[in-house]
Amino acid sequence: VKSMDLSRRSWYVLQGLVEEHLFTDVITELAAGQKYRIPPVQLLHSLLECFLLGNTDAVFFAKLCHVLYLILQHDPPWKSLSMLKYYLDLLQCPICKRGTWSLIEMLVRSCLYCKTICHVEPVSGREDEQKIVHKTLLKFFLDLVKAEVEFLKKSLVEGINSQHQQVMPQTVLLKTFWLGSGTSVLFTKHINILADWVILSHRELNRKNDSFRCEIAGLLNAILGTAVEYWIISGFLMDRNVFHQIADDLAQYLAISCDDFSICELKMFICAIPSLWLQMFVAEAVLKHMCLQRNIAVPTEPLCLQKIVCSYLPALREIALHETKIHKAKKKKIGQQPCPESQRALQMLNGDKQNQVKVLPDLPDLTFNKLTAKAEVQTAHTKEISYLLAEEVYKRNIKGETALHKACISNNVERLIQLLSVPGTDINVKDYAGWTPLHEACNHGSTVCVREILQRCPEVDLLSQVDGVTPLHDALSNGHVEIGKLLLQHGGPVLLRQRNSNGKLPLDCVESVAVKEELLNLVHPEESIESFYECIEQEFCSQLRELCFILFNKLLLNFCSVYNLSSPLTLTLREVACSNVLPVLAYGNSKMKNTFSKDWLVDTYFRELETFQKLPQFLQEISGNIVFFPEEQMKALLATLKTMIEAYQLF
Known about the structure:
By secondary structure, the protein is an all-alpha fold. Helix content is 63%, strand content 1%. It has a two-stranded parallel ribbon. The protein is flat. Residues 1-6, 332-387 and 568-597 have low confidence and may be disordered. Keywords: ANK repeat.
């Protein structure tokens, strides 16, 4: 369908309907028109503003989305620079109009942090509906930038731009995350923030797995992956090797940011990365970090097939052996274990945050009951006092501590109850170092405060941690056993399985074997300390071996896929991958050599292809590691590699 602008008369008619607030008629006319016509940005902004302010329903928004996708289908941003400007004008808040990044930031703030978007008052009873709308707008942005990347890939493979470009391809993606075409740095402030969103979304998913959180995590992951693939394709177009920027900057940042994830959480995070390129580089960054922690040397050369098979595979074998030796050593003696020293002072802005000697003693139940009764009487506030309290809830000191933190530090239960009575109070609020009010109460021995939080706040996060230090770690490392019991009674056995950054379990913070058994029996009656540790270590070693296998699997198979080293098979293993932009045998080597006659890319490709041809020689070495990794999964990997080799030989 040929695109044509709205006539001046049609524009006046629709504008008149907007001025009369007949928004439903306008959107119906746009969505059901027999001929596609590109609407003015001002008209779409009026409709979007109407919906964001809560003046329409879901049917209205569905029609608006239909119009947006029609525009993307018929007039994509790569059609012309004027169309690119059209999308950049469109993709911003219709009221403040501060650009595309500001709109994305606003939508993520709503979906991820449950914050009210700008200029919009929350509509009672429609909060979930509004969040779904914001998620849908994020999805449209993702579909748009993915379409841009697909167009660039197609252009590259078909040789539309055979000459190297001097500037980055002009896209909505570029203008959103890199602002201009002259940038040579991948890890900009906006990419950094996007990476933080990805990590946070997975933290939230680990804390509470629901369908909405899962969708948001997937969207943010996909946007980051699309940005990475755009950066790689732009590098190809500009004859620039950008792999090191992804591996050394972004992937390392992601690996360090999820350092406190459990093995299961880390495995889920890596497997959830949709971009094969980014997934591969993150897997390498995680593996490097694991080797560094265990003093296992790996070469510093860029990632290549030779390095994966000849360096990383033996390193993974060493990691498995290293953990097995530690497990055997722990079996010999499971008695008193050293109490890990608190790392808090290193993370605060100034001064020693915690006084770990002068802490308030655990209070008996009688005193607790008296204080609670007194506090309950004092929670009757006037509206004026409630307003003042609401203001105080959000105030922070230089360390980022809120009134909730300070009440828990000082064991001021009356003050705590007052603050918790304020609507919207977030009990999981963190100071600048990441500590929650519950952490503070546990660290300072504020038993009454802990009990109030557990009773009044079902949403409290008992697994919140800094460097792996959970509230239970905090309580037991400071000798507050009664608080530890309260936490276990409320949170169950999962609390005992959490490790801090030093690999310590909460029970490792307790010196007395009798106290350990008492705590353990609260959640595992009649189980011995020895059997508990034995079970935990076996589970840990098994999970670690599985993680090692996944890392190796992602490195090896993703590398072969993105470099298209076995073209017939890789096309069936992935839905979308950047391998299209690399030399594809099906398109003919001569064509690619003419396109990239003196390119580093061609040299790299044929060097990796030469190594791939030697892969049959490595199969025996890979097979020798089956004993260290999950047997069935390793056999499946070997079968896949053999099929890839056979496919290449037949090709």
